């Protein structure tokens, strides 16, 4: 049974930082490119960042470039998202999953990030 558990969200003031974690179980985590996604109220879920299986290459949506950093620890089956210089528009529920839709796993519960201005 594949399971993704996100954590690390919370309430933070604009300009602040948070570090999200996502622990995966049930699959060989190191075989997969992983990503972070987010869904704001009333909006579609959107891509935020991704990292290749080896950690050698990362991708970011334009709005978070230079502020967010994705990383992974394959020994711990965990992917991270360091979020700095947070803005009110970053408020959303954040999810992790495989980067590519064709091998996507069941979604976890996500972790709420709320940025107050």
Explain this structure:
The structure is a single chain. The chain has 117 residues and is mainly β. It is 0% helix and 49% strand. It has no helices and 10 strands. Strands 2-10-9-4-5-6 form a 6-stranded mixed β-sheet, with no helix packed on it. It has a 4-stranded antiparallel β-sheet with strand order 1-3-8-7, with no helix packed on it. A hairpin with a 6-residue loop joins strand 4 and strand 5. The mean pLDDT is 96.
Rg over CA atoms, rounded to whole Å, is 13 Å
Number of extended strands: 10
DSSP helix fraction: under 10%
Number of helices: 0
Anisotropy-based shape: globular
Produce a short descriptive summary:
About 0% of the residues lie in helices and about 50% in strands.
Give descriptors for this structure.
117 residues, 6-stranded mixed beta sheet, globular
Compile the SSE list and pairings.
Layout: E1 3-7, E2 10-13, E3 18-25, E4 34-39, E5 46-51, E6 58-60, E7 68-73, E8 78-83, E9 92-98, E10 111-116
Parallel strand pairs: 2-10
Antiparallel strand pairs: 1-3, 3-8, 4-5, 4-9, 5-6, 7-8, 9-10
């Amino acid at each position: 049974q594949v399971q993704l558990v996100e954590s690390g969200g919370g309430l933070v003031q604009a300009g602040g930082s948070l570090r999200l974690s996502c622990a995966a179980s049930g699959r060989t985590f190191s075989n997969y490119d992983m990503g972070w996604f987010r869904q704001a109220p009333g909006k579609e879920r959107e891509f935020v960042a991704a990292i290749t299986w080896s950690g050698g290459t990362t991708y970011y949506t334009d709005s978070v470039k230079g502020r967010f950093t994705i990383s992974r620890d394959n020994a711990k089956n965990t992917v991270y998202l360091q979020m700095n210089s947070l803005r009110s528009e970053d408020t959303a529920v954040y999810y992790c999953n495989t980067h590519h839709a064709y091998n996507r796993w069941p979604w976890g519960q996500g972790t709420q990030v709320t940025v107050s201005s």
